[in-house]
Write a structure and sequence with these properties.
Layout (H helix, E strand, L loop, with lengths): L8 H9 L8 H27 L4 H11 L4 E2 L1 H8 L3 H13 L3 E5 L7 E5 L1 H22 L4 H27 L4
Antiparallel strand pairs: 1-3, 2-3
């Protein structure tokens, strides 16, 4: 069952299920359950960090998408980045504009278009949340040395690539 020098709650979970499911691979169950618990932990931490900053998740996601485009984008670009219909982004942008986190300005390249710009206030709100989220990620991964963090990242990449391949095949109807 891997290293048991420091058992965790997942080791107890696996031990409980092995007699019930004799074919259960403890390493697969352990890895998947730990990924689930870590994902849930990070999600709870993110929700709390955003609540502490009075920043609703959807507003953070919109600021994040805008920051990822250098702080300026067309609403249609943000909608694509967020996987939303363009008209759904309008309400988000209205709320962020009222809070002073974004401003709408005429596009320098197309007079018919309006761009959205991240304001100093919006950048500060986004960075404050990002700092809190990054701090917790750093805290968790400090359990590993740099080589172990690189190995974990590389291993998870391989697993994710396999998941992405299957998802792509299913979408194309080619999984047998």
């Amino acid at each position: 069952m891997g290293s048991m020098e420091h058992p965790d709650r997942v080791d107890e979970h696996v031990a409980r299920w092995r007699p019930v499911l004799p074919d259960l691979d403890p390493d697969v169950e352990g890895a998947v359950t730990r990924l689930h618990f870590l994902s849930a932990h990070l999600r709870r931490h993110k929700e709390q960090a955003l609540a502490d900053r009075d920043l609703p998740r959807h507003e953070f996601e919109t600021l994040h998408a805008l920051a990822g485009r250098g702080g300026r984008a067309a609403p249609s670009q943000l909608a694509a980045d967020l996987g939303m219909p363009p008209n759904s982004v309008t309400g988000r942008l209205d709320a962020l504009d009222r809070r002073g986190h974004v401003r709408r300005t005429p596009s320098p390249t197309d007079r018919r278009r309006v761009d959205v710009e991240l304001t100093d206030s919006g950048r500060a709100a986004w960075l404050g949340a990002m700092d809190a989220l990054g701090h917790e990620e750093d805290r968790l991964l400090a359990a590993l040395d740099p080589a172990e963090r690189r190995l974990l990242s590389d291993l998870l990449r391989r697993v994710l690539l396999r998941a992405d391949r299957r998802d792509g095949q299913e979408a194309a109807g080619t999984v047998s």
